Amino acid sequence: MTNAILALDDVVFAYRPDRPVLAGCSFRLSPGERVGLIGPTGSGKTTLLALIVGLLRPAAGRIEVFGKVRRSEGDFHEVRARAGLLFQDADDQLFCPTVAEDVAFGPLNLGKSRQEVRLVVADTLRSLGLAGYEDRITYQLSGGEKRLVALATVLAMQPELLLLDEPTASLDEEATDRVAEILLNLPQAMILVSHDQQFLKRTATRVVRLRAGRLEDARLP
């Protein structure tokens, strides 16, 4: 075991046997680190996040999260309760009729009281500039608004690990700045998948690139 919050060792994954996505991928994430993950579209960045929370399973290699090696579905139940995954497409994350219901869903399922959840929902929405959105119909929101609500659903669960896939997609400059400030003030370790180099320069403590199925240290220009 390691003192890393997340450790990947020689992870291999392919959707098709003749086209590996990850080919011996290794990585360490220490408590409090904010790691930017870059790479071309289709290189496997989203796949990597899905493997970390057990939505996909590797063909080979080892995944250790929160100090335990994770193999079975049961192993990953705990991971998904303690890690927050922001999906690349906000519509995959939002399924309740209203914004408040979407943001409340996770905390309620973690056993918080309805009074606690109301406070969490209000505080989280306020932090993202969405105060007053509680009763808005989710599917009627703009792309940027949906993105912020999806992020709110993750942050409201107060996870120990954040896995954020394109957290600033569809956001204007003001909203991007707000998200960056929030992330900079959070204590959690996080992986930030993004094509926005300025955002990563501002938020990430280091950057890695996914290339040919492996992770390597990277520097932004």
List the SSEs and their pairings:
Blueprint: E1 6-16, E2 19-29, E3 34-38, H1 45-52, E4 60-65, E5 68-69, H2 73-82, E6 83-86, H3 99-109, H4 114-127, H5 143-155, E7 161-165, H6 173-184, E8 189-193, H7 197-203, E9 206-211, E10 214-218
Parallel strand pairs: 3-8, 3-9, 6-7, 7-8
Antiparallel strand pairs: 1-2, 1-4, 4-5, 9-10
Helix pairs in contact: 3-4, 3-5
In CATH's first tier, which class applies?
Alpha Beta
Contiguous helical run count: 7
Largest sheet, strands/sense/barrel:
6 strands, mixed
- With strands numbered from the N-terminus, the spatial order across the biggest sheet is 6-7-8-3-9-10
Could you report the average pLDDT, rounded to the nearest whole number? 95
Care to count the β-strands?
A: 10
Percent of sequence in beta strands: 25-35%
CATH topology heading: Rossmann fold
Within CATH, the superfamily carries the name P-loop containing nucleotide triphosphate hydrolases
Give the proportion of residues in helices.
25-40%
N/C terminus separation: 35 Å
Number of domains: 1
Per CATH, the architecture is: 3-Layer(aba) Sandwich
Output the helix-strand order: EEEHEEHEHHHEHEHEE
Global Rg:
17 Å
SSE-based structural type: alpha/beta
Low-confidence stretches: none
> Shape from CA axes?
globular
